[in-house]
Amino acid sequence: MTSRNPKKGKKPAKRTAQQSAPGVERKLAPKADHGEKDYKGSGKLEGLAAVITGGDSGIGRAVAIAFAREGADVAIAYLSEKEDEDARETARWVEDAGRRCVVERFDVKKRAACKKFVDRAAKTFGRLDIVVNNAAYQQEQDSILDITEEQLDGTFRTNIYGYIFMVQAALPHMKSGGVILNTGSVTAMKGNAGLIDYSATKGAIHTFTRALAQSLAEQGIRVNCVAPGPVWTPLIPATMDKQHVKKFGKDTYWGRPAQPAEIAPSYVFLASTDGKYYTGEVLAPTGSETTR
């Protein structure tokens, strides 16, 4: 259970062993909190349908659980066969909330695969109201000289190309009142010396959000971004060295990383009519002061 006092939240004191990318939730130690026990919905998304990339674990799982408990059907996308078990677990929580769940494994770097997933979700649910672009890739490097062309291509195609591909696939299915939510990062605002290419893609996501919001305003579709600080997810031990993992999140005011369950309510707010005047915004639950 996540404490009401942020300083007394779940602290990953004994960190998990390193993983290879993409990381998997079932090997994360200590376990992350996705709101499985505590999140209680109040019908904010009743009858709506959402698609979430990177929905098998981490923030994606927490958002899927929250959306389902708020009344939405949810389709989740994920990348790798080794994440199959994590995806099934997320689907179980969605279905336990009484909602339908579509699960599909594919690579968001491929435009056609994004379209296939979105078309399937829209056909299954009979509508599409919310798109959550959340899939991400990062890899720490000591120097920009160590970033290979392969890494650069993978980071940009996952973190920004994939977002654009998903929006292109979703817009034909969306009506006025629809919502697009992009996952940004504190690195877009503060930078990160070890994550130069990742920080650049997150900066692109923030600007993409603002530009797309302007473009879609006349259609009545809102576009916003959630830009978290450090969050305890499988991506961390899968892409950072042991020393960085050990001190991960200690530079926040709370002295710890966020749990995914602490980030999901930002997505619920922006997806619901509570946030109906918000568009082109970057909401930043970072656990510290941020600048744009």
Account of the 3D structure:
The chain has about 290 residues and is an alpha/beta fold. The protein has a single domain (about 45-285), classed as NAD(P)-binding Rossmann-like Domain (Rossmann fold, 3-Layer(aba) Sandwich), CATH 3.40.50.720. About 40% of the residues lie in helices and about 10% in strands. It has 9 helices and 7 strands; from the N terminus they run E-H-E-H-E-H-E-H-E-H-H-E-H-H-H-E. It has a 7-stranded parallel β-sheet with strand order 3-2-1-4-5-6-7, sandwiched between helices. Helix 3 (about 110-125) runs parallel beside helix 4 (about 150-170). The longest helix is centred in the middle third of the chain and has 22 residues, at about 150-170. It starts with about 50 loop residues before the first strand and ends in a 9-residue tail after the last strand. Residues about 10-15 have low confidence and may be disordered.
Low-confidence stretches: 11-16
Strand order of the largest sheet: 3-2-1-4-5-6-7
What is the count of β-strands? 7
CATH topology grouping: Rossmann fold
Write a brief structural summary.
Helices cover 38% and strands 11% of the residues.
